[in-house]
Amino acid sequence: MKKFFFFSLFFMLNFLFGQQNTEFKAVKSFFDYQRFMLNNEFKKKFDSESDFAAKVNIKKDFSEFIRRIDSVQNSALVGALIKVKNREDLERLKVHPLPKVEVPNPKKYDLDQEARYPGGFNNLRGQVADLFYSDAVLANQELLKTSVEFVVERDGSISSVHAVGDNFTFNRQAEIAMYLLPEKFDPALVNGTPVRYHFRLPLVMNFE
């Protein structure tokens, strides 16, 4: 009975961790589709117009619509981030009476391999930068730093993403970008078996 309980708990937690990434990607997919439809409509309008001044105005209108969509998408992603963090907090409360689940990373000499992202560390940083919504950061900020800590689960998904830095908005955007990563990690292995692994990613971005 005890084995079944822990197996059920393990399955439930893995499902929730995978679901987190799905929530963020669903938001992004929805807004990507809105941009696609908007682009098609404005392109039709632009192509049918012969007056140069009118074409310039159409481009301005299109840019403004895209800016607004980006802002609304960011609000939706912040909402998803709050929801995920609240759920993670609730799950910690639920498992608190049980034997401690969190364990430190295995010693490096025990690992067959550390957790790693496809394409390596630089590819991970590059994808986070591409997914980062820089318009949310105040215009007077130039160089910002944060350290993003998270857990790579046994299935390669990530959970418990938490950025620690001086700028609150920069931290939140870094956390959102992590959840939007298009690929899973290769999990850490001990004796060929996937294990949970705590990961730390320093991020520095220049907004000049």
CATH topology of the largest domain: Fusion Protein Consisting Of Minor Coat Protein, Glycine Rich Linker, Tola, And A His Tag, Chain: A, Domain 2
What order do the strands of the largest sheet run in, or round the barrel if closed? 2-1-5
Mean pLDDT: 81
What kind of sheet is the major sheet? 3 strands, antiparallel
Rounded to an integer in angstroms, the radius of gyration calculated over CA atoms is: 21 Å
The number of domains: 2
- The amount of helix comes to 55-70%
Q: How would you sum up the global shape? A: elongated
Task: Give the oligomeric state.
Answer: single chain
Helix count equals 4
Number of E-state strands: 5
Enumerate the spans where pLDDT stays under 50 for 5 or more consecutive residues: 1-18, 96-103
CATH class of the largest domain: Alpha Beta
Content-based structural category: alpha+beta
Q: Indicate the proportion of strand residues.
A: 15-25%
Just name the CATH architecture of the largest domain. 2-Layer Sandwich
| CA(first)-CA(last) distance | 59 Å
